[in-house]
Amino acid sequence: GIDTLTATAAPLLRQVERLLVVHQAGATGKCYAAFFSNGTLASPLTFDTPEAVMALAPEGAHVIGSAADAILVLAPGRFRRMEGHDLPCAEGFAAFGADLPLEQDLPEPIYLREPDAKPQAGFVAETLRLARSDDVPALARLHRICFESGWSEDSLRQSMATPGAMTLVAERDGGIRAFAVLRTVADEAEIITICTAPHWRRKSLAEKLLAAAREMLRGQKISTLHLEVAADNEAARALYRRLGFSETGRRKGYYARDGAAPCDAILMAVRP
Question: How far, in Å, CA of 82 to CA of 79, rounded?
Answer without folding.
Answer: 10
